[in-house]
Design brief:
This protein has about 220 residues and is of the alpha/beta class. The chain folds into 2 domains: about 130 residues, 3-Layer(aba) Sandwich (Rossmann fold), CATH 3.40.50.2300; about 70 residues, Winged helix-like DNA-binding domain superfamily/Winged helix DNA-binding domain (Arc Repressor Mutant, subunit A). The chain has 10 helices and 5 strands. Helix 3 runs parallel beside helix 4 and helix 7 packs across helix 8. The longest helix is centred in the last third of the chain and has 15 residues. The radius of gyration is 17 Å and the shape is globular.
């Protein structure tokens, strides 16, 4: 089953929350339900209950903690990504260490935000990820950039990416979406879409999120 992730005709972005701490879960639901253009479709205590309940009605985005009871958020993200390739999933967590960030992005997270993210920025990030972006808290983005500066691609990891395709991958990893990447590179969004199609073919992936995860996993940039 593949969920649709475009904003519906009524303009309301429906969000599913996966968070084991009741106060945090209820606070997020109240923020989302209390903001025009957003609706909390469902909230779940565990990844297992979310996986069981998601088939009933599709959201536009999922916010999930990583440190969940039972199945971890990272394992859950991997399952969700396999089931629903185009559903944006944002990790919302207290963990900002390299291992957690790397693992979540490789599992297929579309964004990575810390729980101290201001409410206005959280709502903005939800809109951004639905529009194809990859929002990250500044601290997380700095870690990702540093990781890529330290890592070097193995000799065997060559997919004949052009310099522009490689630059675009770097921008996507840093959290840019089509419009901001286009501005950064000085090209049109149509050209960005053209490059993305070629990247998908060369890396044998089916989405921008999968391309970013593969680039991280194989240290392509």
């Amino acid at each position: 089953m593949e969920l649709e992730t475009t904003t519906p005709a009524d303009g309301v972005i429906r969000v599913v929350i996966i968070e084991d701490t009741r106060e945090v879960r209820e606070g997020l639901a109240a923020l989302i339900n209390g903001t025009r253009g957003f609706s909390c479709l469902n909230s779940y205590y565990s990844m297992e209950s979310a996986l069981a309940g998601l088939n009933r009605q599709p959201p536009e985005v999922i916010l999930t903690d990583i440190g969940l009871p039972g199945m971890s958020g990272i394992d859950g993200i991997e399952i969700l990504r396999a089931r629903y390739p185009h559903l944006p999933i944002v990790a919302l967590t207290v963990y900002d260490n390299d291992e957690k960030v790397f693992s979540a992005l490789c599992a297929g997270a579309s964004g990575y935000l810390l729980k101290n993210t201001p409410p206005a920025r959280l709502l903005e990030s939800i809109k951004e990820v639905v529009d194809g972006g990859a929002p990250m808290s500044p601290e997380v983005a700095r870690r990702v950039v540093r990781l890529f500066r330290e890592f070097r691609p193995p000799e065997s990891a060559s997919y004949r990416l052009t310099p522009q395709e490689t630059e675009l991958l770097k921008l996507l990893i840093e959290g840019h979406h089509k419009k901001t990447a286009a501005r950064q590179m000085g090209i049109s969004t149509n050209t960005i879409s053209f490059h993305l199609k070629h990247i998908d073919v060369k890396l044998q992936v089916h989405s921008k999120t999968e391309a970013v995860a593969k680039a991280l996993r194989e240290r392509l940039v």
